[in-house]
Specification:
This protein is of the alpha+beta class. The protein is built from six helices and six strands, in the order αααβααβββββα. Strands 1-3-2 form a three-stranded antiparallel beta sheet. A hairpin with a 2-residue loop joins strand 2 (about 85-90) and strand 3. Helix 2 (about 15-25) crosses helix 3 (about 30-40) and helix 4 (about 50-60) crosses helix 5. The longest helix has 13 residues, at about 15-25. The chain starts with a helix and ends with a helix. Bound molecules: zinc ion (ZN).
């Protein structure tokens, strides 16, 4: 039993160790609250786009005792440590993105919207405005908003 465990660690132990290392490598002390929030953010295969309020709700739902202010602070600490990036995808709403590479976003629907990553290689810029001399473009962030096609709506009404 003991030998078997050493050969293949329990599945739950692996993500914990990965998250612990992630925080340590980023120079963050792995406090209980940081670990709990990091698990919600990083312990899944898909990229997460989450607001502080959403993370606070998720944490509360699984019994993590943390204040909204702590969630905000932790998200900003993770952002400073480059574990997350802050992106403005919708006016008045700040998303924290677990994909820290440069990329664009596809927004589906209104509220709540689904946010999908678009790889930079999928968008091509044929023409860009002139930048003042001595300056260069540092980054471009495209947000594509998609809604249900009008033609599809009309078709549904006619039938
Ligand atoms: Zn993203």
């Amino acid at each position: 039993m003991e030998t078997a465990r050493r050969i293949s660690p329990a599945p739950a132990a692996r993500p914990f160790a990965l998250i612990l290392n992630k925080l340590r490598n980023a120079g963050l002390r792995p406090t209980k609250q940081r670990m709990a929030l990091a698990k919600l953010l990083f312990d899944r295969p898909a990229t997460r786009h989450i607001t502080a309020e959403q993370l606070y709700s998720e944490a509360s739902a699984v019994g993590i005792q943390v204040s909204l202010a702590t969630v905000y602070n932790t998200l900003h600490q993770f952002t400073d440590a480059k574990l997350l990036q802050e992106v403005v995808i919708q006016p008045g709403r700040t998303y924290f993105d677990s994909n820290t590479a440069r990329h664009h976003h596809l927004l589906l629907g209104d509220d709540p919207s689904e946010v999908i990553d678009i790889d930079s290689s999928q968008i091509d810029f044929g023409r860009l405005p002139k930048i003042p001399s001595g300056m260069e473009i540092d980054s471009i962030h495209v947000v594509i908003r998609a809604r249900v096609a009008r033609a599809a709506n009309a078709g549904a009404d006619n039938e």
